[in-house]
Amino acid sequence: MKKSHIFIIVIIGAAIAIIVTTAGDASTYTSFGEAYTMAAAGNTKEIHVVGQLPKDSQGHVVGIEEGADRVSFSFLMMDDNGKEQKVEYNQPMPPDFTRSEKVVVIGSYNGETFKASKILLKCPSKYQETKINA
Amino acid sequence: MHYLIGNLGHIFVITSFVAALVTVFNYFKATTTNDLEKKSGWLLNGKTAFYVHAIAVLGICVTLFTIIANHYFEYHYAYSHSDRKLPSYYLISTFWNGQEGSFLLWMFWHAILGVIIINTNKFWEAPVMVVFTLVQAFLASMILGVVIPGLDFKIGSSPFILLRDVMHDAPIFLAQPEFIPKDGTGLNALLQNYWMVIHPPTLFLGFALTVVPFSYCMAGLWLKKYSDWVRPALPWALFGGAVLGLGILMGGYWAYETLNFGGYWNWDPVENAVFVPWLILVAAIHTMITYKNSETALKASVILVTAVFILILYSTFLTRSGILGEASVHSFTDLGLLRQLLVYLLFFVLAAIALAAIRWKHIPSSEKEASTYSREFWIFIGATTLCLMGFQVIAATSIPAINTFMGFVGLESKLAPPTDAPAFYSKFQIWFAIAVGLLSAIGQFFWWQKIDRKVLLNQLFIPFVAALLSTLIIVNISKVFNIPYALLMFAGLFSVFANAKILIGLLKSSPGLSGGAIAHIGIGMMLIGVMFSSGYSKIVSLNNTGLQISKDFSKEFNRDNLLLFVNETRTMWGYDIEYLGERLEPREHSGYIRSSDVKLTDDKDKVIAKHDLSVNDHAYKAKDTISIHGENTYYEIQLRQGDKKYTLYPRAQINQEMGGLLPSPDIYRTVSADLYTHVTSIMNPEEESDWSKLEEFKTKIGQEFFANDYVSTLVSVDRIFEIEGVTLGETDVAVKAKVRVQGEHGEYFAEPVFLIRDKMVGRIPDEIRDLGLRITLLNIHPETSEFSIGLNTRQKDWVVIKAVEKPLINVLWIGTLVVMAGFGIAMTRRVREFKKMKEKGLE
């Protein structure tokens, strides 16, 4: 066997190892229900949950509470299965939070509340923006 | 409405696109024709078409900038990215704030590079420009904004679109089609930073430069000049490596200074998407240099140079198609270009692969096995390490894209990007970084000498021992016993020492060749800087009072943050630290205004001076209006140690709509470490203060009294004839007292008002915020010339800060500059080489 063949095999091996470990270390998208079961079973790995902010009939987001220290807040979120859940976030509300059409929270259950360590927003494309201040 | 300028812009856009296609066609003909006379005709046509294209691109830029600079808010681009208050240098960053503008910036650099290629390289002009302009034509299509009739498919997104065409459903436009907003929505405050003026142009120049080696490579395969393309492509690759690297680091430096991530690198998809092509570009440079010297690694060079450009397209696709939408904090908003970007990407992937596949058999490669002691072998290992390093990053970054594609073929993938990106990537990347450090130390020795085992060990002995000893000493002093950290430090030091040894040798004989050694010293320094500033960083704002800041905060927060009351000294990091109060930022000049010296108005960007004051030699009279950046509040914090004094101004943007507090750090830089400070909690500006019971006493003008333990004087009491917001009648009387309070740091003035209006008594107290003091003029006793003064006090103003020590971060920045210098020297050498060969008629 030539040295270059060994070399190629080593590279391919390394690449496969990278893919496998990356996939193993990556998080997963799930629902609140599943995340709750996971946490109850002792799995503390952080997961992604996709959902929306519940709105009242006027289209205002409901359920947002500012934390006592003003640098944290909590809110209600409805996942894609329709389950509503209180989410706590240890940081200030991200810009455009209430305008987002979709929210992704990353974190895990701590008892009955979901502790988010990160929030990602999918904001409406600016081409759908209809509000304009005259 | 200014229709003309937008129409003009649109014509330029279409011209640039058409001219690019014409250029491609003519240069293609010039390349494939053998008839010399016809060939020169096609060449001339191609050249002319490209110049037309370049002028059109310039025209688009000028038009768009005119729209922004003149505040034509009927245009969507100006409306959504700028406002009237922006100073002119930030109007420049407005230009590339939007996605269309950043495509335009990229095209602008292409236009300039194209002109340079046309004028420097006659032999390669035609084939290179075919590939190059084809890339440019695709780019131009991104800003076309043309809807194909009947198909309802829009090509590109035009920067010249009118606001009313974007928001056609907005009620205001239905009622008044000619409506023009008075002001735009402005530029994100985080982007109002000088780095944002120079970082994007640098980065996009880097992007543009990667196309040049790719074009040469494709042209080489096309013309079956399998090896000749390397020489002219190499200086461009080096230039690209330097510029792209610099652009990435500028972005990192901006994040370090402005964002509150606490670092310069956050492994965000947008950062990763640029970092990976740079890694592969560096790998490509190595194989190209190897090839130039020993005829091996040609196939590897072809693959890598192509991969760099494809990765640039891929990263453009990732960050601009909206596919990362849920995964990245700061990718562009979706413009509906996903399909178009995908076509762009796939076209070049398939074309490049097809061309390479057809020619693959003919590409010369060395049949000889590379010996373990040859430089080719080690360069190859180095390039492979860089590629695997990039592969790990791009594999994880691509997860959202993979999910989407799985969705296309009907598979559901639940894989999500890693939750803690820095920890996830660092875990892998640290080992690659260690390998890179070690290889850059060893590789250089193989480069300069035909070496066998004995010579190598001889040569490496001193740098090895020096690095090992230094590492042991540092680990024992710092007491951070972490094996990967220690290894990384060793690798960095080893690279610095080994390359320094080579550099010393080279400087004696041939300093022009020292680029490689210098760049590798820089890499070693960067590794050391990264390791120290991240691995050895520690929180220094430890709460040493023994008291909780608040029971509402978490345990960690109470431990790691420091509560500072105004004018009360604490100790931190061996310094006395004191909070001096809130400051505002004037718009027109530098400096800071004490909040206590001004009155707020309804316009958040305007305040009124309470009395004469001077800010950085700009004098204001009482009642002068001062323009400020209303969204920014600064907190003046002084550090003192012996005679040394340093003032920090960490910033917070308080914006209820945006969810309270958005802090930006301020950094105290010393030679050995940076002190990275930001506010973590501030007083609620809306909340009513808890005032003490009113304390009442009588005083005379000129008499001293104590207010909250501050020496104070009633300076004057004058009748006034108008009060803001109150019209005084003929029988009304109003007087204003002026009270001077001597604070710890300078004087303050309070001006309470006493008035009798419609026979009713009214009192308007005045507050000195920095001192937590409210003064009221309660009564006037003309019979004894005395005045009754009322005092309320409250808890002093406070701020909670967090400060982190980042040791040796300067080594990282200096290392970066050293790498750039290395690239520069190497490039100069290759350009000279190219010119010399050109004079011999070998381009």
Report on this model:
The complex is a heterodimer of chains A (134) and B (843). Chain A has 134 residues and is an alpha+beta fold. Chain A has helices spanning 3-25, 32-40; strands at 27-30, 47-52, 65-66, 73-79, 84-89, 102-110, 113-122. A five-stranded mixed beta barrel of chain A has the order 2-4-5-7-6. The longest helix of chain A has 23 residues, at 3-25. Residues 125-134 of chain A have low confidence and may be disordered. Chain B has 843 residues and is α+β, with helices and mostly antiparallel strands. Chain B is 51% helix and 19% strand. In chain B, strands 6, 7, 8, 14, 15, 16 and 17 form a seven-stranded antiparallel β-sheet that branches. The radius of gyration of chain B is 33 Å and the shape is globular. The mean pLDDT of chain B is 86. At the A-B interface, helix 1, strand 1, strand 2, strand 6 and strand 7 of A face helix 14, strand 3, helix 16, strand 17 and strand 19 of B.
Backbone shape of chain A: elongated
Major sheet characteristics of chain B: 7 strands, antiparallel
Oligomerization category of the chains in this entry: heterodimer
> Given the structure, what is the number of helices of chain B?
21
Q: Give the number of helices of chain A.
A: 2
Helix/sheet category of chain B:
alpha+beta
What proportion of the residues of chain A is helical, as a percent range? 10-25%
Distance between the termini of chain A: 76 Å
Shape of chain B: globular
Termini of chain B, distance in Å?
Answer: 53 Å
Helix content of chain B: 40-55%
| Nearest-integer average pLDDT of chain B | 86
Query: How big a fraction of the residues of chain B is strand?
Result: 15-25%
Low-confidence stretches of chain B: none
Radius of gyration of chain B: 33 Å
Low-confidence stretches of chain A: 125-134
